[in-house]
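FORM 7B: Structural annotation worksheet

SECTION A. Query
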Amino acid sequence: MSTIRRPLMRAPDYEDAKRIARAGNATERAALAQRPDMAPELLFYLAADHESEVRVAVAANDQTPPQADRLLADDADERVRVALARKIATLAPQLDPSSRDRLQRLTAETLSRLVQDTAVQVRAAIADVVKDMPDAPRELILALAHDTEIPVAGPVLELSPLLCTEDLLALVHAPPGAETIGAIARRPHLNETVSDAIAATANSPAITALLRNRSAQIRENTLDALIARASDNVEWHEPLVRRPHLSSRAARALSAIVAEHLVHALSTRPDLDPGTAEFLRRQVVKQVAWGTPSVPTHRSDLPLPTDAFAAAGELKARGRLTEAHVLAAADRGEVRMVAAMLARAADVALSVVERAANLRSAKGLVAICWKAGFSMRVAASVQALLGRLPPTAILTAGPGAWPLSDEEMRWHLGFLAREGIAGQRPSAQAATQPAAS
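SECTION B. Predicted structure
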């Protein structure tokens, strides 16, 4: 319990305080409720004030008696309960529900009531106070960590020193909320055992957070396994390349799947041996010279043409212009090759794809993917790569397979084609000249 000693109010002050509590305006009563020397009986009286701002002040006052705090724990105004939660949470290390002290038991009961509050902000206020307390009650920390709402569980999952490896593993294996594992992945100095468990999940955002956590300990073979899965998870590429410790084997493997600028970043890492650094520099030179690397998994299957549109044409002729190849090229950041493959698959001019990309038209790019016979998975990658759209602007699947109706997508295709014709329309004088044979 609080050890603050309250100086007694002098008699004239007490009489003036009683008058304000009974007849003062809301601002005066709120100011009175904030006073550190307020008499407990007056604070108890103000705890039932009809103005929320007064009750908020009472809830935040360290001198408010436990009986009044317990009443405020059921207050209808969430702001009152948030102020009370922050105050009571600071006392958590001192509280013992089995104490013989009646007032301490009452305060412990109030805290327990607030931990179960239906308002997320109330529970979150408690978590914010106790998140890094080394002496908070373990039962309280576990209750907050198992909360389904990330504003409540997140601070504790990320920072509480009271959560042991076994606690974290249990939460990874049976997460109470969608963002539980991601919060654990952001813990400073996460150990290899927990990192392994996170890496073994199918939770891509959590794995991305783990890879971005530079203090997390990740075994070399775990990184190798993630690199093997990274072709289908382009969001892992940059954090993998930027990991503090990366073996030469991992760097070479990454160079085969990441975009040109990330291969360049790999080649400049100071922790790689000279042979690997030279290999990576040659990879950068090749990518610049080619403009776009070969798409097939085995390069011997298809010689690399210098023209991306011709390369896409050969893929289509061989029956290999598949969704998997488009996604692989998109994961590697091969802008020109993806545009060419999309144009070939949709049987539209390359300029139509380029126009949708230059306009950053999410709807246009989705329509082209639809005409090409690809899925929304390809459409999402194409919007990000060709349209350079942020995640919040990318169209995702609607109630059906596509976010637009067939009629809308046909309209966008027609619009992009018409824009191309309009952009190339000759002048009136030139239009009267006979066409060259």
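SECTION C. Observations
Confidence is low (pLDDT under 50) at residues 1-5, 289-306, 422-437. Residues 300-422 form one domain.

SECTION D. Sign-off
Analyst initials: ____
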